[in-house]
């Protein structure tokens, strides 16, 4: 690491890089982004919504990104301003870029912590960082500009694409392949056995060995404590750009299409095929061996029990009620078929206008 | 560690400390609590319910805590007895106290396992125990009487309050702050990125950098494999006395009020604000950007889809049925609006008494 | 490890061991199973369904297991064939056996990675493998032919039966006992505290110390990131042959009967007793202190709120609908009791045939 490296950047450089304009001193330096309320000197912040106007007045940020610099000045904000049409988007791009720039500068060449244990034949690209206590199995390949943080365990023959970041305590089982720019959070497990058993005559279960792998595309984010099982024979597949939140369970031989985003606590059963550009709400469930059309949106805590061939928004949630009301409505739900029979019977017993006229 | 330390205590000392009375030999020593059935010599046990009376007769405990010592003697129980009005509460207090007392005695000064890796500028209080393979980032602060068990990973600038216990393999990301007397179970991840993305014109997702922290108050318990995301800009906040069970997912910028208890597998989406003294049932879900009033009780597996401003008990669960009955009731639920239209139409077709009389 | 060990086996030996017949060269060697599409030279594969016939024609497998060897030859498949009535079952048994055989041969005597940390009084059986960074507490017992992979943490007094495999990063808390042939996947936590608190007068919670253990029988599989809490005083019990998928939460003092299989993301609350031979669908929930009869089948995402004493298939899931339809049906569900009252009132207002005739 170069101790003299300055992780800060001037407002002028940042504005130029992301096509914005500066009002005030363009040589003002910032090294990170923070909220208006928590920003201190050396921080940039931004105003994304009028409801933060009071915070804007009081902020100690050195630079604030706004959509209307003149209005901000009128409110008495005297710090350097960056003006752009969408300050939130500017923040997303600029903060992400700043992180990547600093990471590359701070790891100018490959560093392996002395406590890490690398098997024979491991290949590390340039500017790879391997943290304390990491274990990498034989023949694994870790491409350039990738961070493998403390306590990660990578099995034999794993490959990780360039520019990836494995947070502490990620586990990747033998043979799994991860694309470029992966972002994997702590506690994620990739390549655990699929849950496959054949019933036997004595009512015990015979394990079906799970010998397939996991194939993960580029630009995939995987949340904390999410689990992705290896396929039985072929691979479980996560395509490019998929975003997975925390505590998601993906069973063997699932295929998730590109750029699909899945919220926390979702469970997807074996061999389900989710199309591209889908959005799956938190804690939803998807049964096995079915297909979900590209662009489908599934509501939170909803269970998909059969294939969805027509995209759209789908929901299946029992409405929340006061407990006493719920007890009555739930009792009625149970007895709905009976209620219908009773009503239809009673209607039949009563003459309609039509019958009267007939 | 002081090899001569005796972790046991006499029945007399224990009774005095927790305002109970002894019948029998007050010098009887015990060093732990166990159930009536599993207790051996040197164990204390207790009778909390009449249905354990048979176990009471057969127990090998050296000391039994009862609410009626004379009755226990009449049943033939000859061991030392401690009499108190609520034996279960006595157990909770006495066993907890015994654990803390022994822990402090057994770790008389700070011990760091030689395999642990501490970054520069780490501050450890007195009587701190750092286990094998622990990694602590630069500038972290761990207050007195805190145990950090094997395999925990604490990022840069993390702070942990006094008297805390991190079980093995807890991960705390950089900058997160935990209060005093925290109890965090294995596999918990605190400070993973929130799940925030902006849609782009090519239907891919732009990551919103997550630069906020996590602030956790005093006396908080966090279950195994529970995940708490850092805020986008400001912090995710868990207030004093909150109790979180296993496998809970708490998204970015959630605020959970003091002494709220949340059962296992609950998911809470981003920016939800849960009041103090709430109880959330297992596997319930709470959508983002909503508010739940202080003292609200949410049933298990129920989804909160809008703010709850009036405390009470709320439930939303489809009732369990035999599959054949469920198929019929679920089919009816789908067609309820149609059924209502049909019934109302048919009712309109039939003259009522009112109409006949009119 | 014996560098000269050949992990491969001939088609003839394999066929003989599992009562099948060879067509072609019985001396053909294979060392693993793969799908028809991914198999290369040295792999065995199998045809389990007619829909893979095209893959059969193109496979590069050295050996293919089929149910009709003559038919496969007629399709032009020239490699060595193994004929058996159920190729999938043959695969399950042969691949499992091959894994166990090779594992035993490759670990001819106990090996402990130099980075592992074993407490005093740890007992290791023959042919035990302890991976990098493993921590084993004092007095633990690990029986013969067991693999404890990298990063596992076993507390004091833990015991693990013969022929078990703990994948990387499994945590087993002090005193928990695991039977023979256990298969435990990464991130699983066994023996975390149960979630037990007594409400206090100031509305805070008093922790009930959890001092029971976890008892796990033989032939149990436990999925990635699954959590099993220790009992309050007595043990949480998982009987022989139970199969648990990923991300399951099992609370304190639960008992799960033998050969019950539980799919991913299920939550089971405290002191529930699940009978033997049950099947619990993914993300289902089971409330505490209830009983489920032997052989019961619970559907996915269904909540069991009271004991099930009669086996059968039970389901409770709100049906999935287009969002607009769901909004209408859910609104109706809420108002069902009111709707019934209204309909019954209106029916009373209208004379029936019976009344007219009477």
Write the layout of secondary structure elements.
3 copies of one chain form a homotrimer.
Chain A: E1 9-10, H1 11-17, E2 21-23, E3 29-30, E4 32-33, E5 43-46, H2 53-58, E6 63-66, H3 69-74, E7 80-83, H4 87-106, E8 111-112, E9 117-118, E10 123-124, E11 129-130, E12 135-136, E13 141-142, E14 147-148, E15 153-154, E16 159-160, E17 165-166, E18 171-172, E19 177-178, E20 183-184, E21 189-192, E22 197-199, E23 205-207, E24 214-216, E25 221-222, E26 227-229, E27 236-238, E28 243-244, E29 249-250, E30 255-256, E31 261-262, E32 267-268, E33 273-274, E34 279-280, E35 285-286, E36 291-292, E37 297-298, E38 303-304, E39 313-315, E40 321-322, H5 323-334, H6 336-348, H7 353-357
Parallel strand pairs in A: 4-5, 5-6, 6-7, 8-11, 9-12, 10-13, 11-14, 12-15, 13-16, 14-17, 15-18, 16-19, 17-20, 18-21, 19-24, 20-25, 21-26, 24-27, 25-28, 26-29, 27-30, 28-31, 29-32, 30-33, 31-34, 32-35, 33-36, 34-37, 35-38, 37-39
Antiparallel strand pairs in A: 1-3, 2-7, 22-23
Short description:
The structure is a homotrimer of 358-residue chains. Chain A has 358 residues and is α/β, with parallel strands linked by helices.
CATH architecture of the largest domain in chain A: 3 Solenoid
CATH topology description of the largest domain in chain A: UDP N-Acetylglucosamine Acyltransferase, domain 1
Based on secondary structure, the structural category of chain A is: alpha/beta
Q: What is the first-to-last residue Cα distance of chain A?
A: 95 Å
| Range of strand content of chain A | 25-35%
Shape of chain A: flat
Biggest chain pair interface: A-B, 75 and 69 residues
Q: How many β strands of chain A by DSSP?
A: 40
Unreliable stretches of chain A (pLDDT < 50, length at least 5) are none
Number of domains of chain A: 2
User: Main beta sheet of chain A: strand number and arrangement?
Assistant: 11 strands, parallel
* Rg from alpha-carbon coordinates of chain A: 28 Å
Q: Tell me the strand order in the biggest sheet of chain A.
A: 8-11-14-17-20-25-28-31-34-37-39
CATH class of the largest domain in chain A: Mainly Beta
Helix content of chain A: 10-25%
Our count of helices of chain A gives 7
pLDDT averaged residue by residue of chain A: 95
CATH superfamily of the largest domain in chain A: Hexapeptide repeat proteins
Q: State the oligomer.
A: homotrimer
């Amino acid at each position: 690491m170069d101790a003299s490296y300055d992780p800060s950047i001037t407002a002028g450089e940042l504005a130029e890089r992301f096509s914005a304009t500066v009002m005030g001193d363009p040589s003002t330096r910032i090294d990170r982004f923070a909220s208006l309320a928590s920003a201190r000197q050396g921080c940039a912040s931004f105003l994304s919504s009028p409801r933060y106007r009071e915070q804007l007045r009081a902020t100690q940020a050195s630079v604030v990104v706004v959509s209307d610099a003149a209005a901000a000045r009128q409110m008495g904000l005297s710090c350097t301003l960056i003006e752009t049409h969408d300050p939130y988007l500017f923040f997303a791009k600029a903060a992400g870029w700043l992180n990547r720039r600093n990471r590359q500068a701070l790891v100018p060449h490959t560093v392996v912590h002395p406590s890490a244990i690398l098997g024979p034949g491991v290949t590390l690209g340039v500017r790879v960082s391997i943290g304390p206590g990491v274990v990498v199995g034989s023949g694994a390949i870790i491409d350039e500009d990738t961070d493998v943080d403390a306590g990660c365990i990578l099995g034999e023959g794993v490959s990780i694409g360039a520019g990836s970041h494995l947070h502490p305590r990620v586990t990747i089982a033998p043979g799994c392949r991860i694309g470029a720019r992966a972002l994997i959070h702590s506690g994620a497990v990739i390549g655990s056995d699929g849950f496959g058993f054949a019933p036997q005559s004595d009512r015990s279960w015979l394990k079906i060995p799970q010998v397939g792998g996991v194939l993960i595309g580029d630009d995939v984010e995987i949340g904390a404590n999410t689990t992705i099982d290896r396929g039985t024979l072929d691979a479980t597949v996560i395509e490019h750009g998929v975003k997975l939140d925390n505590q998601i369970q993906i069973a063997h031989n699932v295929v998730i299409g590109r750029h699909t985003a899945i919220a926390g606590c979702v469970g997807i059963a074996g061999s389900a095929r989710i199309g591209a550009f889908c959005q799956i709400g938190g804690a939803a469930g998807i049964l096995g061996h079915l297909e979900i059309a590209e662009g489908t949106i599934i509501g939170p805590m909803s269970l998909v029990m059969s294939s969805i061939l027509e995209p759209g928004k789908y929901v299946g949630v029992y409405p929340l009620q006061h407990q006493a009301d719920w007890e009555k409505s739930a009792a009625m739900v149970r007895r709905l078929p009976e209620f219908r029979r009773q009503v239809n019977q009673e209607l039949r017993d009563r003459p309609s206008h039509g019958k009267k006229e007939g």
